[in-house]
Amino acid sequence: MSNDRIMTAPGAVPAGQIAVSPGNPCPFLRALVANGYVGGHVVPLSKLSDIVGDASGQTGLGEKKMRLATWLVAVIANGLGPARLLKSATTGAVLDELRDGPLDKHGGGSRILGVDAKVREDEIERLAGFGTDCRNPAGGTERGLTAKQVDAFMKANLQRDGDAARWYFPLLMKGEWPVLLKIMGKGEGEARYLSVAEVRTLFVERRLPERITARLPKPPSR
Fold first, then answer.
1. Number of Cβ within a 10 Å radius of residue 39
2. Of 111, 112, 108, 126, residue with least CA distance to 167
3. Band (64; pLDDT cuts 50, 70, 90)
4. Is 21 exposed, middle or buried (CB count within 10 Å of its CB: 0-12, 13-18, 19+)?
5. pLDDT tens-digit map of 174-188
6. What's the CA gap between 173 and 194, in Å, rounded?
């Protein structure tokens, strides 16, 4: 199978979207930038944490925890030096300079999004292999991953990375797929699952589900 068949080019920008830098490796942030919810360069941490909190749909203490966790992750995203941390805290995260930062696993993990911002369809198919057919609250069934299956997927990614995996990769992963499940998941409790179809849309089309965007402030006109 050729690369052209399994990879989606980063230059394919859907109509009405903003181009996203390959220097931004986070699929959720890429969707926010592409659809104008945040800028593609410097974004204040308060704005990032507010948007993620809104997107989560949580209220009360749960929402506060989500916003705090987002702030803590974003403040270290561009570097861990004292000067860099102070700059991030006071001016914001630089989204198009996240690549090669402390949160970048350099090709480890799921490998769905390459360092060149190309999406590997075969890796999305691999993700689906860890899931099962889940009952969609809206009706019918669809392929998805529950929390336990997400955990199995992440462990398999670490095993696949072998010696290239660093000791802190499991910590980074806890802020990725489990958080995506919390924000985009369908259903409740142990039955809550992350839809593979919605993951594909997030990576390939840089779009969030309508039930998520309905929670967000309308992006500024452009």
1. 16
2. 108
3. very high
4. middle
5. 889 999 999 999 999
6. 15
Q: How many whole angstroms separate alpha carbon 21 and alpha carbon 13?
A: 11
In a domain, 6, yes or no: no
Please give the residue range of the domain that contains residue 74.
Answer: 22-213
Q: Can you give the length of the chain in residues?
A: 222
| Residue 178 resides in a domain | yes
DSSP codes, 207-219: ---HHHHTTSPPP
Token digits for 68?
Answer: 């705090």
DSSP E strand boundaries for 72-161 = 93-94, 119-120, 132-135, 141-146
Rounded Cα–Cα distance for residues 120 and 149 (Å): 20
16 inside domain: no
Phi-psi region of 78 (alpha: psi -120 to 50; beta: other; left: phi over 0): alpha
Alpha helix (H) ranges present in 105-144? 121-129
Give the number of domains in the chain: 1
Q: Which two tokens stand for residue 114?
A: 């390459």
CA distances to 108, 181, 182, 208 from 44, in Å: 28, 24, 23, 21
Alpha carbons 128 and 143: distance in angstroms, whole number: 7
Per the CB < 8 A criterion, the answer to whether 94 and 42 are in contact is: yes
Closest CA to 78 of 105, 96, 52, 66: 96
pLDDT tens figures, 110-146: 999 998 889 999 999 999 999 999 999 999 999 999 9
Q: Is residue 17 part of a domain?
A: no
